[in-house]
Every structure is written in structure tokens, then in C-alpha cells.
Amino acid sequence: MLALVRLCLLLVCLKGSAAEAELTPPHDLFMLTLNTNYTLTWDWDQSAAGSDSATFTVQYAGNHQLKKRNPKWTTVCAETSGRSCDLTRSGLNYLGLYTVRVQTNMNGSHSVWKSLQFCPDKDAAIGPPSKVQLGVSGSTLDIFITDPQNSSNGSMKEQLNKLYYEIVYWEQPKDGKGSTPMTMTTDVTMLTLSKVEPWTRYCVQIRSHDDFYNKSSTFTQPLCTQTEGVVPWWKIFLFFLLSLVSCFLVVLLFLYGSHRCFQMCKATFLPNEKLPSYIKQHEGDYPCLIVSDCELDLCDPVIVCPESAILMNNPAVDSAAPPAGLDQDRSGRHSRQNSSSSGDSGVYSAGGNSAGLQPKVASTFTDVNPLFNSEKLNMLSMNSEFKVSPVVQDEGVVDMEV
């Protein structure tokens, strides 16, 4: 009975082994790497499975685990339908040695494992600098390099402490003629190229190197810039002159704009024309204003001097003959007034001679006060209440009452 059971188990194992042998395993395993990014790729013959779809399982283990009786395999991709598996986040040590294997699964059956030995330090490729910048300082050329980055955005110098860079630079061709490329190496990320010509355009390419396993990256894309030199004095003077003229024009435009703005505001809020235009067009059709008594108080004062003072101040009157109708008494009074020895002053009565004095009063206005012009006389004549009456005073001065 025991022998029969053993025979059945043996048949089952042989049948399972035959089914696994019939399923085609993956082939052409390849590890695609860059710095610390690892991706396992493979190929598989679909024609052997017909219309059925197959899946794949990927595992890895350290080579030191393979020496144990029951090694520990870590599954990275289980039952994946693709032809690749990303091992970047699997925690592989850059200096470790690993075995990676892949198996085909279809309808509950499994193929044999296909394995690959992988050492990141030896097999992983390194990339070029992640960033390159050029700076010009006079006639020198400054180069700024950013280290290649690993999967955690750190510098690859954390894994490759002997990493350095190869720099190739050359003069950009002019008329189809270029200079011979020059090469230099450095392990720093900032350097200055002093052996360059001023006012010349140069191009630079850089790649990474590691000598332990003789690994090199590809070159970066060419980056070009032009060097500078000493600026001639005439250029400095020209720039200064242009800047001075520009500042003057800006100030002039500002002042002109401010003046125009002020004039517009003044014309808007404080116009020069006090009367509207339609009133000024008919200005001659309006009657003149009548001067009131209050406005007469604002006129200049008028002083009427006696006839004796007028005769003394007016030579033309003294030399003229006395008008007709004057009697000897008046001439005698003239002589008494002109006499300096007499202390009595003559007194004139308002009656009899008032008609003869009125013309003298009018002439006295114009002779004594020249500022009293014709325009003021017209204003006085328009006032119907204006009256002139001589008043006899003791001192011989004739006053006018208004």
C-alpha cells in the first residue's frame, strides 16, 4: 500500500515537471541602467503559447544569500504582463552583487527561471553632468558644473567619490575655419578658462568619468558663448553721452508735459475771458452804466482855487486884457489882491458876478487837477443830481458843494 502511494506521488511530480518544461522561459535578459536607476528587460516568444496570455514574475537576491540552504528571494514584480520591471526603488546597494531572475506564468503553469548577475558599481552606467552653465568675466570664461544626480536627487559623488569631468572647448568656426578642440580634466564643479581670446565665441562640451571600472558618460550638448575684453575709451564716452542725452530728453519731456497740463488746468478752471462769447459779440448794443452817488465818493478830490490864485499861476491870464463889462472896482480889487503889503483879503459876493465866474470854474478843473480826465467829466454830467454852487468864505476860497 505504501509503495502504491509513493508511485502516485512520483507520477504527479513527473507530470508537473513535464508541464514546466513545455512552457518557454523568458530570454535576452538585459539590465538598463543610468546612475542608480535600474530596469530589467527581457523578451519572450509569444508564438509558443498560441492565443493564451502569459505573465511574468521577477525576483532578486544577494549573492551571499545563495550560499545558504534556503536563500531569501525578494519579489519585485509579480504576475506582470509587461516585458520590463523597475528595480530602482528595491533598495539595491550600489556596491553590492545580486542575482536577478524572471519566470513565465500561464494557466497555472510556470517556466524555469532565467537569471542575471548584476553589480551596480560595475554594470550601471553613469550619466553626464545634469546641468552646465557658462559665465563671462572680461576676457575669461567661467564654467559651472552640476554633478550627475542619483535616484534620490543627490550627487553621484556619494556613490563614486573618484568622479571627475572631461571638458572639451573650441573656438566657434568663422567662415568655415575653426580652431582645434582643447581638452582638460577637473574634479571641481567651477573653473575658469583663462587661455581664451577676447571678443571670441567659444563652445563647450563636458562628460563624466570614473577610472575604477573605466566608465564614461556621453557628452553634454554644445553650449556656446562669447568672451569680452577691455572696452575702448570711445565706447565709454559714447555710452555716457547717449545716457546724458536720454536723461535730458526725459526731463525736457516731463517739464513740457507738466507745463501743458498746467495750462490746460488753468484754462479750464481759471479762463481769461470773464464774459461769455455770445455777450461779447453784442457788447456795443448794451447801454452804459449810470454812475451812482456812492461811486462819486471814490473819485479824486477837486479843489477850486480863487481867481487870484488862478491869475497868479496862469501867466496867460495876467497878460490878457480884462474882459468887457468889468468895472474899475474889479480891477482895483485885482490890485488889492496882488498887493503884498495889504493884510486884508477881498470878499466876493455870490450875486451879480456868479455868471461870470462859472466858466472860470470849469477851466480851473482842468488846470488844477490834470488827473481829472474827460471820462470823469462825462460820468459827472450823466448824474442829474450833480449841482455846483459857489460859496463865499471869509478867506476868499470858493468851495463847491456836491
TrEMBL record:
Which parts of the sequence are annotated with region: Disordered?
321-349
The family database entries (Gene3D superfamilies) matched by this protein are listed as:
Immunoglobulins (2.60.40.10)
Determine the domain of life of the protein's source: Eukaryota
Q: Which InterPro entries match?
A: FN3_dom, FN3_sf, Ig-like_fold, Interferon/interleukin_rcp_dom, Type-II_Cytokine-TF_Rcpt, Znf_C2H2_type
Report the Pfam families cross-referenced here. Answer: Interfer-bind, Tissue_fac
Task: Keywords in alphabetical order, please.
Answer: Membrane, Metal-binding, Signal, Transmembrane, Transmembrane helix, Zinc, Zinc-finger
Is Lipoprotein one of the keywords?
no
Q: Where is the C2H2-type domain?
A: 259-287
Domain Fibronectin type-III, chain residue ranges per copy:
128-230
Please list which residues make up the signal peptide.
Answer: 1-19
Q: Which residues cross the membrane?
A: 233-256
What PROSITE patterns is this protein classified in? FN3, ZINC_FINGER_C2H2_2
In its UniProt entry, what is this protein called?
Answer: Interferon alpha/beta receptor 1b-like
Q: Which organism is it from?
A: Poecilia reticulata
